[in-house]
């Protein structure tokens, strides 16, 4: 995981090619360049670097052109859009997970191109096992015959990018089609005319108040926004007067059909015929009777194959920088539920048995939280199917009342999200990624779990597997069942489509920022491009059967995958969100609303919190 940012000063940015932005009032925020470097350094603890370039109109033969200078060359007055000189200040931090030699971002090539990259290349661009993907990407981008949108469209894997193309005087930026890596944007305003991109908001830029203009009762336009998925550019030039540097923003189309299809998320088989439901039901009965392979099992087998390949791509040690030196190179965000159990079982199949695996479990109710109970049951089932693996259940215990400083930090990390639900989820993820908890130490004479000594332990795994995307694609949320009841298959399909098309805004940016703040990288196997396409090609009634009760029909195809892996107990478990399974929602409700009942009456999850 890396942190990237660029601050553009002294340039008049033209936004006419984008959708109209909200009108004032705006948040009034202040932060320094050191604030930006500090928060990015948390994401990339291996190195932090910066690079400045200056843009200045120069006269030549009765025409005015735009010249680029290194920082320190020429005299420029910076500070507002009326200035005759612009500045681009690039910042990059690195959590190095690939390559055999260390790098410092932003990278600069011999042509003057500048790249700050936060992501992984799992396919699309050819990379040697021991190459660093940021260096390879820069070489692909510096090829003058390559168009930037073409190169970025080729990448399979999560990414966000900031790229200065020297030859065209153009700043390129964007993130992958599902927004699996965070990139925030501040569009210029009268109050703050700079254009700013950053992986995360500096701690000092949390707005005071609830996002409302108390005097007029109007909603305040947030300083930061999640940059919508896609590829953008700012082309720089000179005004007609020759006095100002101008920048025009353009959004570009994906140049590969696959991305357009995945973004549209159109399933062909939505409405089942009576015989489809009959065959599916008979197949389920036959499976339960004698474990025969039904049509549903064939679909599950297909999903299992692509999921395993997805996990393999994300955990191959030859692409984890110095991974062989780590006792525990990969960890799993672990509730003991269906998604995390599948990921743990597949990780065992992809990782050399000599490596331990940390299973990170958060509880705000000690041993009594549902997720802690299911995690302990889950590790027993994992040991049955993978007895050679040393599994470490890392019990991360927390008390909300003692997390005052941590809560303020998470408020900054989830920004621009600002609801109690976001805060609860973000806090649980941040604590899990920190990996600071307890394990039960084994010895030859201790066979009963309760008799084992509980000792402090901190996970140092830099790669964290997370189950994001499973519920959205496989009808795992309660609202999916409600939509099905009220509108049948078409309504269910539309709700799932909506979930996938907004997952970048509602979930992934927030999750990325909270996990990465600990110098860890979240990887989402369920959001692999091939997994998404495979699930989309399966008939909806084989993905879920919401006529069946919770714990059976929801995420039907994943429950069958679990059975194929030998995880028969977890295949029966109902869905439980992290904020409820860890009990942080209950503690938050009591703290902020007085009781669960009062919180429910106030629809606490969607209520905006008051920033400190």
From TrEMBL:
Record PANTHER family: ASPARAGINE SYNTHETASE DOMAIN-CONTAINING PROTEIN 1
InterPro entries registered for this protein in UniProt: Asn_synthase, Asn_synthetase_domain, GATase_2_dom, Ntn_hydrolases_N, Rossmann-like_a/b/a_fold
Pfam short name (any one): GATase_7
Entry's Gene Ontology molecular function annotations: asparagine synthase (glutamine-hydrolyzing) activity
Keyword Amino-acid biosynthesis belongs to the record: yes
Domain Glutamine amidotransferase type-2: 2-237
GO biological process: asparagine biosynthetic process
Name of protein: Glutamine amidotransferase type-2 domain-containing protein
Gene3D superfamilies: Glutamine Phosphoribosylpyrophosphate, subunit 1, domain 1 (3.60.20.10), HUPs (3.40.50.620)
Region (Disordered): 589-612
Keyword list, A-Z: Amino-acid biosynthesis, Asparagine biosynthesis, Glutamine amidotransferase
Biased composition regions of type Polar residues, renumbered to the chain: 591-612
Annotated source species: Arabis alpina
């Amino acid at each position: 995981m890396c942190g990237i940012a660029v601050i553009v000063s002294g340039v008049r940015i033209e936004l006419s090619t984008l959708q109209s932005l909200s009108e004032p009032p705006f948040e009034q925020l202040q932060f320094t360049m050191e604030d930006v470097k500090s928060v990015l350094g948390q994401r990339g603890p291996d190195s932090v670097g910066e690079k400045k370039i200056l843009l200045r109109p120069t006269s030549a033969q009765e025409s005015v052109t735009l010249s680029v200078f290194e920082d320190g060359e020429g005299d420029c007055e910076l500070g507002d859009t009326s200035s005759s000189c612009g500045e681009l200040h690039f910042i990059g931090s690195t959590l190095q997970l690939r390559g055999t030699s260390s790098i410092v971002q932003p990278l600069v090539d011999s042509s003057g191109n500048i790249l700050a990259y936060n992501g992984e290349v799992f396919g699309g661009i050819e990379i040697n096992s021991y190459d660093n993907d940021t260096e390879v990407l820069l070489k692909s981008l510096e090829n003058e015959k390559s168009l930037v949108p073409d190169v970025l469209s080729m990448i399979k894997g999560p990414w966000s990018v900031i790229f200065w193309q020297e030859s065209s005087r153009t700043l390129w930026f964007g993130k992958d089609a599902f927004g699996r890596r965070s990139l925030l944007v501040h569009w210029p305003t009268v109050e703050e005319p700079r254009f700013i991109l950053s992986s995360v908001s500096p701690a000092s830029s949390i707005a005071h108040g609830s996002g409302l203009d108390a005097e007029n009762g109007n909603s305040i336009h947030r300083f930061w926004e999640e940059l919508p998925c896609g590829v953008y550019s700012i082309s720089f030039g000179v005004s007609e007067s020759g006095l100002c540097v101008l920048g025009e923003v353009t959004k570009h189309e994906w140049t590969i059909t696959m991305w357009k299809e995945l973004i549209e998320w159109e399933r062909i088989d939505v409405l089942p015929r009576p015989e489809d439901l009959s065959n599916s039901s008979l197949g389920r009965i036959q499976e339960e009777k004698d474990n025969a392979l039904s049509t549903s099992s064939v679909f599950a087998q297909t999903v299992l194959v692509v999921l395993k390949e997805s996990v393999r791509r994300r955990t191959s040690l030859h692409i984890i920088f110095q991974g062989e030196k780590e006792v525990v190179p990969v960890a799993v965000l672990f509730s003991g539920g269906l998604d995390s159990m599948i990921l743990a079982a597949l990780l065992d199949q992809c990782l050399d048995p000599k490596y331990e695996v940390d299973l990170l479990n958060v509880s705000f109710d000690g041993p009594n939280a549902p997720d802690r109970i299911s995690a302990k049951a889950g590790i027993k089932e994992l040991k049955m199917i993978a007895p050679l693996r040393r599994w470490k259940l890392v019990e991360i215990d927390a008390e909300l009342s003692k997390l005052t400083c941590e809560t303020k930090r998470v408020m900054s990390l989830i920004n621009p999200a600002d609801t109690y639900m976001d805060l609860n989820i973000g806090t649980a993820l941040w604590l899990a990624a920190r990996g600071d908890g307890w394990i039960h130490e084994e010895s030859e004479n201790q066979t009963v779990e309760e008799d084992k000594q509980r000792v402090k332990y901190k996970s140092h795994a830099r790669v964290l597997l997370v189950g994001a995307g499973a519920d959205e694609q496989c009808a795992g949320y309660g609202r999916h069942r409600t939509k099905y009841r009220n509108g049948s298959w078409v309504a269910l399909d539309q709700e799932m489509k909506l979930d996938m098309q907004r997952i970048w805004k509602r979930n992934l940016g927030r999750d990325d920022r909270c996990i990465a703040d600990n110098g860890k990288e979240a990887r989402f196997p369920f959001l692999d491009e091939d997994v998404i396409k495979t699930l989309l090609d399966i008939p909806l009634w084989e993905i879920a059967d919401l006529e069946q009760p919770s714990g059976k029909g929801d995420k039907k195809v994943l429950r069958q995958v679990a059975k194929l892996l030998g995880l028969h107990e977890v295949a029966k478990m109902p869905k439980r969100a992290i904020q409820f399974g860890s009990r942080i929602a209950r503690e938050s409700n009591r703290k902020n609303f007085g009781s669960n009942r009062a919180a429910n009456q106030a629809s606490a999850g969607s209520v905006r919190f008051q920033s400190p």
